[in-house]
Amino acid sequence: MAPAPVAVSPLIKFGRYSALLLGIAYGSRHHKTLQKKEDVILARKEKMKAEEEKKKAAAQESKSEGSIFD
């Protein structure tokens, strides 16, 4: 036989739910800050990748133009 449930104080319930909501709000805000930083990093990586592809294309083009067998 299980013991009877204990009545929890409204103050404790309020504290629990307040902590839960504050934790969710903090997590959301923290995620937004990290997302902004990550967006900057990804933009930099994409820019570097595009520059690298340009260099490869230019190198490829210069190889084909410089050939005496064309």
Order of helices and strands: H
How many helices? The count is 1
Q: Describe the oligomeric state of these chains in a short phrase.
A: single chain
Name the poorly predicted regions: none
Helix residue percentage: over 70%
Rg of Cα set:
30 Å
User: What is the molecular shape?
Assistant: rod-shaped
InterPro entries: ATP_synth_F0_esu_mt
Subcellular location: Mitochondrion inner membrane
GO molecular function, one term: proton transmembrane transporter activity
Family: Belongs to the ATPase e subunit family.
List the helices and strands and how they pair.
Layout: H1 10-65
Description:
With 70 residues, this protein is an all-alpha fold. The protein has one helix and no strands. It is rod-shaped and about 90 Å long. Belongs to the ATPase e subunit family. InterPro entries: ATP_synth_F0_esu_mt. Keywords: Acetylation, ATP synthesis, CF(0), Hydrogen ion transport, Ion transport, Membrane, Mitochondrion, Mitochondrion inner membrane, Transport. One of its GO terms (cellular component) is proton-transporting ATP synthase complex. Its main location: mitochondrion.
